[in-house]
Design goal:
Elements (H helix, E strand, L loop, with lengths): L4 E4 L3 H12 L4 E4 L4 H6 L5 E3 H9 L4 H6 L1 E3 L1 E6 L2 E6 H4 L5 E3 L2 H14 L3 E3 L3 E6 L7 E6 L2 E6 L2 E4 L6 H4 L7 E16 L9 E4 L5 E7 L2 E8 L10 H11 L2 H6 L5 E15 L2 E2 L2 E3 L5 E2 L7 H22 L3 H4 L1 H23 L7 H14 L3 H12 L4
Parallel strand pairs: 1-2, 1-12, 2-8, 5-14, 12-19
Antiparallel strand pairs: 3-7, 4-7, 5-6, 9-10, 10-11, 13-16, 13-17, 14-15, 15-16, 17-20, 18-19
């Protein structure tokens, strides 16, 4: 098989790039290790920055997002029983975010690829990347007992942290930066009315909590837990009781509880791989970088990678201009590190660290007090939360 761009990974990043390129007449093939049903069962982020939403519309996949997604102009930070609102619309010169579940977003992208007869091959195994430094790279993979080959111009590695793409870069070339946090997030999805029309981030001595939502009848809640905890340690009643303890009384009194329909524990870490290009291979999303979910930068950082790749490939195929491809890694990493800084700052400010002393705790309290005493500080938070310019 021959194609212009072979995309490894059928998550939202890979599907979006495939859709955008297809609309411009550039052919792609997407390889995905899992089945479509498995991909659509993943429960992931749901806060989209304004640039991501615009990219969905450009990909002709934004109709349902605009109809069903929730526009949020702000969010709440709760601390010491107080509720303080960050006015995103005011402090980001009119921008906002869209709350729309990643599962629904991925479904929209799949449906768009189906309408255009896009090639997505699921359940592939033993994916290998070959001749990355040559002018003729290719990818091999296996489905069942059959081994297949795809010849292409470029390979996009959007196959996540555990995928083969980043591992195909020699260790002598790749530099990795990582910070592992000493806790995780226990997340619960429930068919209940959200406790607040906007997200609530809660800083509490017992640990961090977050009240989020997917729709007006579907809520997503998180609490900070030790890395040693297991799902079995947290039956529903225990989770709801602990969540209420970490919320201001006024919010806790409104909380509607119910059976969990999904429950998981995710460890928190920060990770960056450099460079994001090796010959004809370009990394995107979790294949190259991971952030704690505190600042809602994970999926949005992946979208900025896709934005840069889309325009770089467009310039190459339409104008024979390789500037965007040559500068991709540098440009993408500049925005990635800003997202890393913001996510680290939000995580540090709002979580309880097991080894922190009284000095550290005072700094956390001072950081929160300063945030709401300074419009410039709130402006910096809002600017990062709604999304820095691509």
């Amino acid at each position: 098989m021959k194609t212009s761009v072979c995309i490894i990974g059928g998550g939202p990043s890979g599907l979006m790039l495939s859709q955008l390129l297809h609309l411009k007449g550039i052919d792609t093939v997407v390889l995905e290790r899992q089945s479509r049903e498995y991909v659509l069962r993943r429960i992931r982020a749901g806060v989209l920055e304004h640039g991501f939403a615009a990219l969905m519309r450009e990909a002709q996949c934004g109709e349902r997002m605009d109809r069903e997604g929730e526009i949020h102009d702000g969010f709440i930070i709760a601390h010491n029983g107080k509720q303080r609102r960050v006015d995103l619309h005011k402090y980001s010169h009119g921008s906002s975010v869209v709350v729309y579940g990643q599962t629904e977003l991925t479904r929209d992208l799949y449906e768009a690829r189906d309408r255009m007869n896009g090639i997505i091959i699921h359940n592939v195994e033993d994916v290998q990347l070959h001749d990355l430094l040559s002018a003729n790279p290719h990818v091999t993979y296996r489905t069942g007992d059959e081994v297949a080959r795809i010849d292409c111009d470029y390979i996009i590695g959007a196959d996540g942290f555990h995928g083969v793409s980043r591992k195909s870069i020699p260790k002598t070339v790749l530099k990795e930066y990582e910070k592992v946090y000493p806790f995780g997030w226990l997340g619960v999805l429930s068919r209940t009315r959200p406790v607040s029309p906007e997200l609530v981030y809660a800083r509490h001595d017992r640990g961090f909590a977050l009240c989020s939502l997917r729709s007006q009848v579907l809520s997503r809640y998180y609490i900070q837990v030790p890395l040693t905890d297991n799902i079995e340690d947290w039956p529903d009643d225990k989770f709801w009781d602990e969540l209420k303890r970490r919320l201001p009384e006024e919010i806790a009194a409104r909380l509607v509880t119910g059976p969990s329909i999904e429950k998981s524990i995710a460890p928190l870490r920060s990770y960056v791989a450099e460079p994001m290009r090796y010959g004809s291979l370009f990394l995107a999303g979790d294949a190259a970088h991971i952030v704690p979910p505190t600042g809602a930068r994970g999926l949005n950082s992946a979208a900025s990678d896709i934005y840069y790749l889309y325009h770089a490939l467009l310039a190459h195929y339409q104008n024979n201009d390789n500037t965007g491809l040559d500068t991709y890694s540098e440009k993408a990493l500049a925005r990635v590190w800003k997202a890393q800084r913001f996510s680290w700052w939000m995580t540090t400010m709002l979580h309880t660290f097991p080894e922190s002393n009284f000095y550290d705790q005072k700094l956390q309290q001072t950081d929160l007090e300063y945030l709401f005493s300074s419009e410039m500080a709130q402006g910096a938070l809002a600017e990062n939360y709604v999304g820095l310019p691509f």
